[in-house]
Amino acid sequence: MTRGGLILAVESSCDETGIALVEDGRRIHSNVVASQVAMHAAAGGIVPEVAARAHLRWIVPVLDEAWAEAGVGWDDISAVAVTEGPGLAGSLLVGINFAKTLAYVHGKPLVPVNHLEGHLYAAWLADEAREVPEPIFPLVALIVSGGHTFLVEMRDHLQYKLLGETVDDAAGEAFDKVGRLLGLPYPGGPEIMRAAAGATRHDVVFPRAWLRDSFDFSFSGLKTAARRTIATETGGQGTSTGESPLGEDRVAELAAGFQDSVVDVLVTKTIRAARAAGARSVVLGGGVAANRVLRDRLAAAAEAAGMPLVVPRPALCTDNGAMIGAAAARRFEAGARAGLDLDAKPSLPLARR
Question: What is the DSSP pairing of strand 110-114 with strand 139-144?
Answer without folding.
Answer: unpaired
